[in-house]
Amino acid sequence: MIKQVADIHYREEREELEKIDSSDQSMVAQRKARVETTSSYLMSLKEKILDYSFESLDEEILFFKEIKPKFSSLLIFYSAVEKIEMDKPEGGLSHLKGYYENELKAIKRFFDANRQIYSYYRSEDDYLDPQLFVRGVIDPPRWMCKIRVDQDERFSTAGDYMFARIMANEQIARYLESAISGLEFHPFTEDDIETNWTGETINLLEVAYGIYCTAQVNHGKIGIGELVRKLEKVFNVNIGRPYRRFLEIKMRKRLSRTKYLDEMVTSVNKKIDDEDAYDPNEKKKHS
């Protein structure tokens, strides 16, 4: 299925972007590298799709509504940031603040001009999906999608670019707001790489009970069932009924009831000991 292939591709792209973020390149070089990287991954995704036959209409809609816009929005965002920073005027903080505020106004005008499709995007409706996210539609809702950049109908639909543009502009607005406030900004944090719990589910239940019994969330004003549901959502896993599964923990031998939590303590302490044992300055003294 194309989703699994795209997820791996997207994860690899985000890893490449993280490498650029942590590199010793100049800011200008980093911005250019991000644009080149996101463009390359989008083209690679296109090549995969041109050799792929969707298994169903639903899969095609999923791709053009959710998957492709994730890739496209990265390219739109980093291209926009590169232009914003290249066009940034010289001057004091107040002058720069005015520049960023004008860019924010341009974002607002975009959303005002495209409020119908933006409302559709925010509402998570699906009644127009066959017209917006299927290729080759003869009469798409042009009153909703006024812009179509990619003319290759093998890799574009009436709505995928607009969804990508919306996703990117939301991030650009946050970027500008952070720039005005002088805060560091990491884009697409809410659309980060999918996190899947790959250990035993009983281990996550131990963590849940550890958090619950020490009242670490909402000052302890949260039930174990609600807390478990939250963790299930974050880690894409099904733990099951907390109270029933807690019996599995209680039935363990006395010395190993909290097996996973004990393992965590041991692992963290080992990491601390290993890092303390390595002192590069001490090594230099004896060289």
* Order of H and E elements: HHHHHHHHHHHH
Rg computed from alpha carbons, rounded to a whole number of angstroms = 24 Å
Using the alpha-carbon principal axes, give the shape.
globular
Number of continuous helical runs: 12
| Average of the residue pLDDT scores | 88
Distance between the termini: 56 Å
Structural class: mainly alpha
Largest sheet: none
How many separate domains?
Answer: 2
Number of strand elements: 0
Describe it for me?
- The protein is an all-alpha fold and 287 residues long.
- Helix 1 runs parallel beside helix 3 (57-86).
- The mean pLDDT is 88.
- It has two domains: 2-191, no CATH class; 201-285, no CATH class.
- Helix content is 66%, strand content 0%.
- The longest helix has 30 residues, at 57-86.
- It has helices spanning 2-21, 27-50, 57-86, 93-113, 115-123, 129-132, 160-181, 201-213, 224-235, 242-250, 259-277, 280-285.
- The chain starts with a helix and ends with a helix.
- It has twelve helices and no strands.
Describe, in short, the structure shown.
The protein is mainly α and 287 residues long. 66% of the residues lie in helices and 0% in strands.
Question: Which helices and strands, and how do they pair?
Answer:
Blueprint: H1 2-21, H2 27-50, H3 57-86, H4 93-113, H5 115-123, H6 129-132, H7 160-181, H8 201-213, H9 224-235, H10 242-250, H11 259-277, H12 280-285
Protein name: RteC protein
Question: What distinguishing features does this structure have?
Answer:
mainly alpha; 2 domains; globular
